[in-house]
Design brief:
about 50% helix, alpha/beta, Monovalent cation/H+ antiporter subunit E, 8 strands, 11 helices, four-stranded antiparallel β-sheet, Rossmann fold
């Protein structure tokens, strides 16, 4: 771990600046927690971040001694818990927002900061941070030589989850003959042996997954109903003599986080006729909508609430809809107007 040395370097730099000058120097030591309050793993991850801050507080006392400079202010905090963090750009936005709020001019990164797990994050993060009007550096501390491990601990929950998913998928494609059950078990076993060491960035919960599957069974009929209703609405538009379409691309900020929920919502929007997920960035979905009615349904938040219900439970489903959060009312959410289907005048 290089965190200890990185903290020591930051303290040394801040203390030196404070002793050499008369102006006030602020040192912010923050941990980035890529979670949200309603995320089932939030308490664990936030607890880990707070534990790190507790250790940093001890290191502060050790490094500053009994007589720290009077013009040196130190603040500890956790950032990122109020937004969905996925890409290096997301992490950079969280850091830059904090830096702007506290007038920070210099950011020092731990050389082993890698919230992406096995995916290298530091270099792309540095590139993204250049967008801000701040100095960015990686702490010049020694890093232990190590090779990137693609394999993670293959625990029993991983084995059972992958085996169950593979076996059920195999049976869905089979004719349910006795031989299919045997070959399905063999195939699922092979898949489990190959994927268990590399699957899942977090340990699956054998208590949470059954509840999510049960709620998913409720969600599927709801989604099919939404698809059927949207099909009828689009059929009416297509068959109407005046073809009353109003295509636009809108930015839709969803209160969901995590790979599974984001993918589920993006695909659900695409499966519903009249809306198409163009891209997903940060907390924002860029959605192509064919009609005003499709946009109204999008901002009413039915699909978003349903996806939150599947992954986070009934409490998360009560979060205000996008419209209740101020979206969809000519407030800048429209990113691009595709224009009318009629030929425009040259004027």
């Amino acid at each position: 771990m290089t965190v200890r040395n990185t903290v020591a370097y930051a303290i040394e730099q801040a203390e030196s600046a404070a002793r050499e000058g008369q102006q006030q120097v602020s040192l912010h030591l923050v941990a980035v927690a890529s979670t949200r309050a309603v995320d089932p793993d939030a308490q664990t991850e936030l607890g880990q971040a707070k534990d790190l801050l507790d250790r940093i507080e001890v290191w502060l006392d050790e490094d500053l001694g009994e007589s720290p400079p009077s013009n040196l202010d130190v603040e500890l905090g956790v950032i990122g818990a109020d937004r969905y963090l996925f890409s290096p750009g997301d992490y950079a936005d969280a850091i830059l927002a904090y830096a702007d709020e506290h007038s920070i001019e210099r950011v020092v990164l731990d050389p082993e900061f890698n919230p992406g797990g096995t995916t290298p994050m530091l270099r792309p993060l540095e590139v993204e941070l250049v967008r801000g009007d701040i100095d960015v550096e990686t702490a010049p501390v020694e890093r232990p030589a190590r090779s990137t491990a693609l394999a993670r601990a293959a625990t029993l929950p991983k084995y059972l989850t992958i085996f169950g998913a593979s076996y059920l998928f195999y049976l869905l494609l089979s004719s349910y003959k006795p031989l299919d059950f045997l070959t399905g078990a063999i195939t699922a076993t092979i898949v489990t042996a190959l994927l268990a060491p590399i699957a899942f960035s977090r340990q699956p919960s054998l208590t949470r997954i059954p509840r999510q599957l049960a709620r998913l069974a409720i969600y599927v009929p709801y989604l099919l109903k939404e698809i059927a209703v949207a099909n009828l609405e689009i059929a009416y538009v297509v068959l109407h003599p005046s073809l009353p379409i109003d295509p636009k691309i809108v930015e839709f900020e969803a209160a969901i986080w995590g790979d599974g929920p984001v993918t589920t919502l993006a695909n659900s929007i695409t499966l519903t006729p009249g809306t198409l997920t163009v891209s997903v960035s940060e907390q924002a979905f860029d959605i192509h909508s064919l009609t005003g009615g499709a946009r109204e349904d999008l901002f009413d938040g039915g699909l978003e609430r349903a996806v939150r219900f599947v992954f986070y439970g009934r409490e998360a489903a009560a979060i205000p809809s996008p419209r209740e959060r101020g979206q969809g009312d000519d407030d800048g959410t429209i990113e691009s107007d595709i224009g009318d289907p009629e030929v425009a005048d040259d004027d």
